[in-house]
Amino acid sequence: MEVLGYFAVAMMGVVLGVLGGGGSILTVPILVYFFKINPIVATTYSLLVVGVTAVVGVPSNLRYNTVNYSAAIGFALPSFVGIYIKVAVVADDAEGNLASGWISPH
Prior knowledge:
This protein is mainly α. Helix content is 76%, strand content 0%. It has four helices and no strands. Helix 2 runs antiparallel to helix 3. It starts with a helix and ends in a 12-residue tail after the last helix.
């Protein structure tokens, strides 16, 4: 089953390369069904996969001057506000209630 998972990951890479998006929606089912990862953990891993993919793509987009800075700021600022609210308000409440105990806050 793991071999099929690696094949699915390769196909996901092709889809992301052709369409330029959809990483999380494709990553979570692959991690859950092929690699048997807890769905909550798979969601977090998918954020890591999409984030790393975005960081890897930045240099070539800067080189070819294809970065839309106003769109980037338009997405970044609300994200920063959301992260701040999450850390300031929600994190303290959720510290002892993490879903499967896969992350320990201490």
